[in-house]
Input
Amino acid sequence: MLDPATVGVLVAIALAAMLGAGVHIGVALGLAGVWGTLLAIGPDAAWAQLATIPFSTTNSFTLAVIPLFILMGSLATQAGLTTDLYRAAYNWLGRLPGGLAMATTLASAAFGAASGSTVVNAAVFTKMALPQMTSFGYDRRLSAGCIAASGTLASLIPPSILMVIYAILTEQSVALLLVAGLVPGLLSAALYMGGIYAIAKRFPNLAPPSEIRVSWARRWRSLYGVWGIAFLFLLVIGGIYTGFFVPTYAGAIGAFGAFLIVVFKRRLNARTAVDTFKDAGITTSSIFIIVIGGIIFARYLTYTGIVNDITDALLALELGKYTYLFAFAAIYLVLGMLIDPIAIMVITLPVMYPILTKAGFDPIWLGVIAIKLAEVSLITPPVGLNVYVVRSASPIPLKLEEVFAGVMPFLAIDVLTLLLLIAIPEISLLLPSLMR
Output
């Protein structure tokens, strides 16, 4: 058997080589973990991990909430809730400077309460809002950047799939984490809208106000279309917050509620039902592969003592707690340029979470910061997953560099939001403290 330090170097090289060759991140993490365990401990331990972890992970009652939230989002999209949301937001905000972009942000934040998926948000609003904004004379860069950034709001606003992943990896309460993301998510949306308004006032040619007048009667009538999202949000988050049911039950009830909305709106037939469930299954499978591979890799790090060695070495430096937090943020931002947020979490949390909690940070608050950093990674070049989704889903000609240019103001706003969340932890911890 080789010593853990040598194995660690070999595993890191192998993992980097696989990622560079385009191997799926979940497969790469799993193979690296099995190989590392094989070299450091022995074949029996390696094959035992490979044999037991896939089943034990997917057999988790807590993890079952992920496919249920994904299915709820797919059904909500099929029900046309996004169209109703966007129409209502446009009727209320359309005549303001940057009103269409602000309406997109508000509608995307609201839809995040049903989808839980940043990719779904970005894809749906690209197809629906981008042609509308450009037809009203909005700059394509600002429009695309607004959609890509607003799509990330689903990461914080519950039900958030990333929050569930964080809870599983750190063994924290799913319910507390989901509720903790609500106020920071709304704050992020409000700051985005404020930034859009400021840009539109300073550069009116980028986001001209709409000349279409909307009566107050039409505005109030448009709110009727929001009932579906409001119903799902109150059903899921209200039930979790009041303790009426656990998050997994909430996911099942939310998915069933979304199904009833689709049936009520008469938008369900055999073909759409098959497509909806198939898409939800594909998305769930992709996430589970990453989680399984990440847990295999995390077990390798734990069993070989690498996590404890790194934790002890870093804590022995006796750096300030915010120095550790800054290092955590830097790692997220660098990795965010290369891989997706779920992969970042499964790679970094086994090492960084013990360090940060021992340094004195609240684990629930840390979850909010981690998810916000994951949001930033979704629009950070050169990968920026949401940027690629907007570019791929765009119904109008759009260059990748235009989308990256458009997200830059929103990256600056995200930095401001992070500073506020760090300076005022009560923003994240107020609702969880009331639940406790």
